[in-house]
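In this section we walk through a basic example: taking a raw amino acid sequence and producing a predicted 3D structure, encoded as discrete structure tokens. The instruction is simple. Fold the sequence below.
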Amino acid sequence: MKKTKPVPFRHRPKGLTIIYEDQDIIVVNKNSGLLTVEANYEKEKTAHRILTTYIRKGSLKSNKQLFPVHRLDRDTSGVLVFAKNYDARETLKLQWKDVKKKYIAIVHGVLTEKSGTITSYLTENEDYEVFSVKDHRKGDLAKTRYQVVKESKDFSLVEIELLTGKKNQIRVHFSEKGHPLVGDNKYGKKDVSKYRLTLHSQLLTFKHPRSGKELTFKADVPVFFKRYFKNI
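The resulting token sequence is shown next.
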């Protein structure tokens, strides 16, 4: 794997931290509040746009492209991967269902079952809200494995392994279980949250698209999580 040369400071991206980069992939720790790719309401301030500018090193004539491999919700922080060429993207997409994806989250309340797997079929309504349905023909299978690692009177710190990757899956599963994520104004307690969404993509393990070597990337838990649990 050929690593890239350092980029001048003035062209380095803002709003995220580069964890790893070579000729095929770029892995970053995305900040909470930053979109992965453009939406109707935001086209400029996205991880994709910021990193495209970065790899072009400020050259308006550059035709270098960056390809999204997966997405994180706007308010979810953590490990995010982009491909730097089409072949790398296609190779990563083919293996994505087998990629190890670990998250950490803080949820309201104390869970009765300290570990388990939440399984349901998810669908989306016209207001872009995701929810579970009983009829498997009307939704997509979603599986979320979890383990409680710390708890207090009001909150639980949960490690999560995403076994499928559906939109808003973690947030919906814990909300429907009666333990919505802290800071989730869409699926959680809309009147009490003063802080950001406590959901963080902590680890990704996948095979490099060129070499086939297994790689693991980790992102430190955001400081604001420590408002709830100091020793994370």
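Looking at the output, two observations stand out. The two ends are 33 Å apart (CA to CA). The chain has one domain: 9-219. In the next section we compare this with other chains.
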